[in-house]
Amino acid sequence: MTRYRVMAYVTGVLLIVLCFVAVPLKLFAHNGVLSTAVGIPHGMVCYPLYLLTTFDLYRRVRWPLSKMVLVVLAGIIPFLTFYIERRVVAELREQTAPARRTDAAGV
């Protein structure tokens, strides 16, 4: 879960910087340096790693395919990555909480 959380935050931050800082600079100030510096790492490194970590989480937790697709799509909409990450973490913690209580009580 930690890998997914890190990649969700990194991907989300880079996407926000790209959409709200780099692209407007490129369009209005005709300066494409930041869009290249942020866009290439986001598109070639961070988003593919986000896809892999989401797939790994999907495989481990055994989500339905539709849920994995929605989590993957959250990585392309600014700010949605953070919202979905919080929901996923809360859901996973809720699922593992009864198991933790049982283990603690049984010891």
From TrEMBL:
InterPro entries: DUF3817_TM. It is found in: Cell membrane. The chain crosses the membrane at residues 6-25, 32-53, 65-84. Signal peptide: none annotated. It comes from the Bacteria. Keywords: Cell membrane, Membrane, Transmembrane, Transmembrane helix. It is a multi-pass membrane protein. Residues 2-88 form the DUF3817 domain. Pfam families: DUF3817. The keyword Transferase does not apply. The keyword Cytoplasm does not apply. NCBIfam families: integ_memb_HG. PANTHER family: MEMBRANE PROTEIN, MEMBRANE PROTEIN-RELATED. This is DUF3817 domain-containing protein. It comes from Actinoallomurus vinaceus. The lineage of its organism: Bacteria, Bacillati, Actinomycetota, Actinomycetes, Streptosporangiales.
